[in-house]
Amino acid sequence: MEQIEMADDIIIFPEFDKIKNEIERLRIELSMLLLERDELQFVICRNIEAKYTLEFGSIEYRAYEAQCTALRLKRKIELIQAKRNRQEPVSIVAIEEILDQEFASYQKQLDERISKMNEALQWKESDALSESDSKELKMLYRKLVKILHSDMNPERTDAQRELFEHAVTAYKNGDLATLRMIDAMVGSETLVKQSGDTIEQLNEEKRRLQNLLKKIQESIAQIKTRYPYTMKEILEDEEKTEQLRQQYEEILGQYEERILFYRIKIEEMMGKSHE
User: Fold this and answer.
1) pLDDT at 208 over 50
2) In a designed cystine with 59, which of 68, 134, 210, 248 is the match (CB 3.0 to 4.6 A)?
3) pTM, two decimal places
């Protein structure tokens, strides 16, 4: 009986299907991890930061403002002393202009803190989604992640990339209506066509997805080690919340003492300069 030789490049279909199934499993896992990461970034951390700002924003602002004032007064003393050392006339107006320039970045940070407080107040006043709407929001977003996210679909078009950016913005803002509209546009579209792939291409895609999974897992872990997520434990514990408030009060008190000391020092220096 004649023996039939098998060509080296013949695809063993069970293996082919096994890899395709593994890739689909990885894609599902990746879409869930991407949703977890974005939920962490755009919802959980955003809520934590808003709660933290409402709880500590006022005292934190006052403490930072006092710090800026103390640093400015200290620098003012240095500039006055420099003028006196050179036996030059001291112009407070000119010195204040110099200080305005040197401390412009501090003022910018103070303004940013006010903006954060306004955002937190707006968040407090906004209407929260119902439990069912929240579930639908996550479901639609995860579906769009699978279809439009660059990690899931490296060959997406510019139009698809822009559409996904709109989806991300809608998810951040809890805009269910916009996500529904985008979902209606893309339908059940899939950008990945594996039917013509070879075993080598499928294995390469499998490795790519495995590497992405690892990176997303690391990203989630890093987010949980940074502000504002690190404030979650404090906000959930009344004792720790009160301890942090007292720390801010102590810092504010220390800077207020320095401010008083520096102002008295400046008055003494200016009194001597007019003698």
Assistant:
1) yes
2) 248
3) 0.78
Judged against a pLDDT cut of 70, whether residue 24 lies above it is answered with yes
**16 exposure class (CB count in 10 Å sphere: 0-12, 13-18, 19+):** middle
Q: Look at the block and give the residue holding tokens 């919340």.
A: 241
Question: Quick one: what percent of the chain has pLDDT higher than 70?
Answer: 90
Q: How confident is the model at residue 2 (pLDDT cuts 50, 70, 90)?
A: very low
| 42 vs 38: CA distance, rounded Å | 6
Q: Helices in the chain by DSSP H: which ranges?
A: 13-39, 45-85, 92-102, 104-125, 131-148, 158-172, 176-186, 199-223, 232-235, 238-273
Distance CA 150, CA 157 (A): 10
Asked if 152 and 24 count as a contact pair (C-beta separation under 8 A), the reply is no
231 CB burial (10 A radius; 0-12, 13-18, 19+): buried
Residue 272: per-residue pLDDT: 62
**Under a CB-based contact definition with an 8 Å cutoff, are residues 28 and 209 in contact?**
no
Q: Is 224:231 a contact under the CB 8 Å cutoff? A: no
**What pLDDT score was predicted for residue 5?**
47
Q: Is 197 helix (H, G, I), strand (E, B) or coil?
A: coil
Smallest Cα–Cα separation from 140: which of 184, 109, 96, 105? 184
How many C-beta atoms surround the C-beta of residue 34 within 10 A?
Answer: 22
For residue 251, the one-letter residue type is I
Ranges of each domain in the chain? 37-189+214-273
Widest CA span of the chain, in angstroms?
A: 123
The span from the CA of 43 to the CA of 48, in Å, is 9
Q: Are 210 and 26 in contact (CB under 8 A)?
A: yes
